[in-house]
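Here comes my example:
=====
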Amino acid sequence: GYRVSLQGNFFGRNHTYITFPEYNPRKHIKLDPPLNIQSNATASKCQIWWSVPWYLVEILQYELQYKEYSMSWEIALNKTPPSSLPQIEIEATELRSGITYIARVRCKVSENEDSYHSQWSEWSQTTVFQRAGVPKLPEKILNTRTIQLFFIPLSFGTLLYLLWNCKLSQKASPALTFPHQLLSFSHSIVCTMGILR
């Protein structure tokens, strides 16, 4: 430890002021800000990571700030990573689609660390990101799926109609009616399958 004092001449007399009777540099650290902050945004989340000296990774804690690019830092949102790893994720639900965001991070020694104590570092350089849009299915796939959804109940309904009609018309001319209706149903299925292809 050290003893820190201030000496000066005040009103013609020399004075000494003891500022820190027992100053321990390990308890008064100000770290450099994190480096190389980067981001990668997808439709579901945005990953942000940065670099710090490897020997400090396990004893640091971080605070991330992010905001819409055009807004002021005074209204930025703060996030704290759940671990000492130099990375964090922002869920897509916290971001507005089509809006550009900017983020920065700072660090200090963790409150759980007994050997060292520090204040927050200055803020890092910034990274810019934008939530990716949800990918749209190709129009051809959508059309095929729509046809498939209609084909199943349509086929089932047609079959029920033919069976019901056949039952009613068996009294009149069962030999002539049923083959004709079955042929019509088969023709409907062939046409629908042709559309699906």
Q: What stands out?
A: The longest helix spans residues 139-169. The domain at 29-131 is CATH 2.60.40.10 (Immunoglobulin-like). The chain has two helices and eleven strands. The helical segments are 139-169, 174-196.
